[in-house]
Amino acid sequence: MKHIPFALALFAAFPAPLAADQQNIIAEQVWSRASMGENRPGVAYMELHNTGSGTRTLTGVETGRAAMAQIHQTSTSASGVSQMAPAGDIDILPGTRIALEPGGLHIMLMQLDRPLAEGEYYHLTLIFKNGDNVEIRVPVLAASARGPGQ
Amino acid sequence: MISRRAFAAYLAGGAAVASALLLPGWWQISGPGAAPPLPRLPLPLGEMSFSMQDHTGAEVSPQGLVGKPSLVFFGYTFCPDVCPTTLSDISTWLSGLGADAARLNAVFITVDPGRDTLPAMAQYMQHFHPAISGWRGSLAETDKAVAGFRASYTLGEGAEGEGADYAVEHTSSVFLFKADGRLAALIDLHEDRAQAVAKIQRVLQR
Ligand SMILES: [Cu+2]
User: Fold this and answer.
1) Going from the N-terminus, what domains does chain A have, and what CATH number goes with each?
2) Which of A108, B137, B170, B201 could share a disulfide with B52, CB 3.0–4.6 Å?
């Protein structure tokens, strides 16, 4: 399970509407934590691999589950204080991958329609500058999950 | 207003360290208005002064932690990234210690008591290792705790509204104290598991 790219699985399931170069971005190790209670935000993590020959720029995210979805960067100062801020556009150079992982880049889902429940899946759209968006399916793991396999 | 409170806690911490470093000497070297000296180490647990309730409703204080090594960190339950990650890490360390976990205190202190009511804390703590205790106090007690640990926090924009959706910037290192209440080490957010467990085991062996 750990090594199956979820985006690929999705392409297999819905191959028709996708243009060839959309497959240049492969999302792997996709996971989300169950959110707790009514108003707490959710979070999603993944690795994005650019298998194409051009730079791709991730500008945002969207999901039907959250009224507001943003890519955030957690940063920790020299004195050990952590904060989150919108990450801005993210360039993914050809042949490289970027990791959205705990304590770093993450997708933050605010104003969820209902809590993200362990065991369910939801759809997320990664928005790229050239207009080729990538749809991914995100599995919701336990509230205490630490990575895609746990 | 709220960031002013956090800032006051910060100043109080800075002033205490400055006096510990013999204020006149430091003042002459660095001059008025210089940044507080770093690192600012937390007070020994036995010298801190604050009182809170744990997530079961029991009265707790830092003095109550003295006698066993302790892991303590600050956070808030609306924190989507850093706090569940740290709580999962601590849960994993405790599981890795097996029976030795009972020889350790593990405490999560909320810096967002406005949203983190006791029932919210109780619900939240269920998801993590049962040995981790979730502490919550009034704003004043929270500020006293933060000052004692030389930690800091700032409530984000929107914190004063109703049902507000705001983030909290906060110290994210895990404080590891020896059984006598003095600081042994800090464990940072990105430290690997083996290194963290080794630090804890070193303190348990003493
Ligand atoms: Cu965030």
Assistant:
1) 21-141 (2.60.40.1890)
2) B137
